[in-house]
Amino acid sequence: MADMWPVKVYELVGARWTDRGTALCTGVYDEALDQAAIVAKSEIGDVEILRSQVRGFDAYQRQQETLIVWAEPDGTDFALSFQDVEGCGEMWDFILEVQRHFRAKDGDDSSLSPLASGSGRSQSRLTVTSIIASRRLPEPALGIIGDVEAAIKVIAKTLHGRARICEYILNEDYIKSLIDVMKQAEDLESLTDLHALYSIMHTILSMNDHGIIDYILHEDVFLGVVGILEYDPEFPTHKASYRDFVKNSLKSTQVIEIKDDTVQRKIRQIYQLQYLKDVVLARVLDESTSDVLNTFILFNQSDINNYTTQDATFLADLLRPFTLSEGSGFGAGPIPATNPTAPSNPNMFNTISLSDERQREQAPSPPPSSIHPSLVLPRLDSTTRLSASSGDLGQPATSYDFQVKVESQVAT
Description:
Helix content: 40-55%
Structural class: alpha+beta
GO cellular component, one term: protein phosphatase 4 complex
Mean pLDDT: 74
Order of helices and strands: EEEEEEEHHHHHHHHHHHHHEHEH
GO molecular function: protein phosphatase activator activity
Number of helices: 15
Strand content: 5-15%
Domain PP4R3 EVH1-like: 7-101
Subcellular location: Nucleus
Radius of gyration: 40 Å
Protein name: Serine/threonine-protein phosphatase 4 regulatory subunit 3-like central domain-containing protein
């Protein structure tokens, strides 16, 4: 195999695929040593990034059309992501041919069938059938996510199967394992696996199990769940940004401190449930799943209302700014009158006779700087009248036996 094909080389470090660089990849066979190897050389400097010996019984997996994944004897996992489908196909044929050669040499060519089957669909059908028969899910991994998706959909059709699979998912922390696979698929840019993960998560949530809904609301799970749901196969060329929104927008400020951790958690859960219902699953949400999410929201709201109306400490903190008490500052007592000489009559209107007004006109006026604009009254004579209730000034008067009504706040 002499052709060189552009690839990206990945190595699994911990739970994440690490990009080791872009290279040109080819298969090399040494007749003298009867050995074959996968060689990836850097495009700059002709430096070998990877050299992996091909063995007859190593487990190689071809995923999608451009990805080959395998594990070295020391346990290190590698992946080659090809730029071209043709390059991936040629490398895959090289691996199969080498393995066929080694197995024929050892007299065990019959074991070639799983790899020589080409499409591998018979192996996939066997995997789906075994999952359905056992009512157990295999450990999620790249390459079998499609089989897990198909098996879950079949099992979830029956009530008994749905109950068993939900119990298994909760007991085995299966959703966390799916989140780990999602991170690997993102590192490898494996859209096929990411779309299959979306379908699995949608199927799991559509089973409407209360235990699963409560489980995904945990702080370390919710972000991963909405991350899986960013890759909707109905929009293969687009990716949502749910995780960015949740991380940057899920911030709250407590005006009145809530000291109960359980109530604080329920407030966050209401936000998560509403975001899941109204945004993440809005396009695909069925009526039964919507009812389950609404039930969770109502129960949490009820618990919060009970806390705010029954907790004495919270109520005291809530009402403290409005409590009238001795001291200074807001809410520390009645506000003093602006005019110390104003009458203390609490009635809305005060009645002043015309004779009182004439006496006031004859009294010496205070300095102009001390007169408040609201204390200046208009001059009255026998041809004018003032009505505070109607606001009409300058209407003819017929006699002097009327009284002028002035609002108490004008008097003060």
